[in-house]
Amino acid sequence: MNTRRTLPGLVEASCLLGLACFLAYLIIGGNYWMYLNPKFKSLSWAAAAVLAALGVYSLLRPPIGATWFRAAIYVFVLALCGMSEVGLKRWASASGIDSAAALQEAPQLPSRVTQGGVEYVRINLGELYDIAANAKPDKLGLNYAVRGFVRRSPEMDAKGEFVLYRVALYCCYADSTAVGFRVLTPQGIPLPENGTWLVAYAGLASVKETKETPQASMEGSAFSSVQPDYRLDARRLEPEKAPGMGMMYEWRSEEPYAY
Q1: What is the largest CA-CA distance in the chain?
Q2: In sequence order, what are the residues at sequence separation of 6 or more whose Cβ sits closer than 8 angstroms to the Cβ of residue 120?
Q3: pLDDT tens-digit profile of 213-237?
Q4: CA distance 186 to 168
Q5: Opening angle at CA 181, ends 173 and 256, nearest 5
Q6: Contact at 8 Å (CB) between 165 and 217?
Q7: Helix/strand/coil for 205
Q8: Its pTM surpasses 0.90
């Protein structure tokens, strides 16, 4: 066996195994949810298995056509994966995100909750946005409990309003989309601080405006949208800790919603 010819192939094989291990690590105990929607975990497991099989096969039979240039590309890709994970951990730490807590399964909450004698349907902002956009008559008159983070602007402050946003992760972080509703603050209650997380207990109110709703820039999101036709008239606001990274990964059309 020509060692000089097979060594690049062995490097490639080792990198394939390394990529398989990295993917398995992300799924089991890493920051998978920062890269992809958790619904893709089964597909990622299949990809890890294929990478591992190819790696083992390449170790036993190093590819003849392997070159040091190609092997260097494999090493570079594996190094990028490691660097991305280190960078994400530092970013999460600086942002106050508890990665370990995010891996824990969210508690199953009842579909509805009663506050002050009023019953509210727990729902995420993406699901509620769909109800409002399609003007579903059987659901527009219900009361809802939604959670998200606050964005304010001087124009909205003057009206006693703010925008409650939630970021939706459809596929990966690069295509994340922030969707939100204007929220009318209950009378006598001060406007919440910008960036804080809270739960709003509110009813939907039809509000047609000719002027575009002011929207604060949403760093890190490819697109942001505030529901133009309906506003949330809040009866109660409660501070809440963001669940994990605070993203929406799932959407349902009926109760129980993916709150």
Answers
A1: 82
A2: 112, 113, 114, 143, 144, 145, 201
A3: 555 445 544 467 899 999 999 999 9
A4: 27
A5: 75
A6: no
A7: strand
A8: no
